[in-house]
Amino acid sequence: MGLLSCLWLAFLQIRLLQSRAIYLTTPCQGYYLLNCAVMLLLVKAFRATMAKARAHSLLLFALAICAVFGCSTILSGQGSTADFKVIGFTLPVAMVFSTKPYVPIRVPGISTDKDLAKKFVNNQIKNAVSDVLDQQGRGALLSGAVISSILSDLVVSVNYEPLECKEVLYEPRSENSTGITLVPEEYLVISGSLKTTNLIMASWDKKQWKSVLDKAVSNAVIGDDLTKLYFYESNWRKACSQTVEKYMSGG
């Protein structure tokens, strides 16, 4: 198919989308109409000066198509979902919580209730995914408005039950000391799903989702750590247990 035919085909597709503009997100409607106008001018300019406009027209064509579809959402109840799992991380203080009044003083940064710990985990995952999508969008020369629209269509669901610190020990210990135990594996796994109703992302295949998730997961959980295996950090000289009876030896 010739280049002119491709442009005319794209023009017809945009005219079809124009008749269904109700499905566009409100902030992007003006941007959408602007790109429709750009496409009209593009086709006219192409017919007049095909040789000179070839490279420039192709770039505008690509940006116009990305802008239109990037601001579009699909019908309610439809969408694309991808599952994820984060493993092999160290446990940031904010992912642990304690309701004991003295614990936050001895362990700065620890969450003071379960909801705050869950919120921290959810934000870590969502921010990591958003950062990757933002980088990819800017790499594709999409505008900030379009990228924001894509991100607004993304719903992150996280499954994680935080560790509760009911006891904090402050005396110096080593990894071989009694009273220090392994962090249960259940607290070193975060699972969840990403769902989008954005027209572009809803058509992604598993490979495209995996590319984003792999990059996001690798940066999802960072910060001050309690250590990977033990409730113990030599610099702080303190240890934490979920329950004395279950996780502390000799108790």
Write the layout of secondary structure elements.
Elements: H1 3-18, H2 29-48, H3 50-70, E1 80-87, E2 96-97, H4 103-106, H5 114-139, H6 144-152, E3 154-159, E4 163-164, E5 167-169, E6 189-196, H7 206-218, E7 232-233, E8 238-241, H8 244-247
Parallel strand pairs: 2-4
Antiparallel strand pairs: 1-6, 3-6, 5-8, 7-8
Helix pairs in contact: 1-2, 2-3, 5-6, 5-7
Describe the structure in your own words.
The radius of gyration is 26 Å and the shape is elongated. Helix content is about 45%, strand content about 15%. Helix 1 (about 5-20) runs antiparallel to helix 2 (about 30-50) and helix 5 (about 115-140) crosses helix 6. It has a 3-stranded antiparallel beta sheet. The termini are far apart. Mean pLDDT is about 65; it is low at about 15-45, about 50-75, about 220-240 and about 240-250. The chain has about 250 residues and is an alpha+beta fold. It has 2 domains: about 5-70; about 80-245, no CATH class.
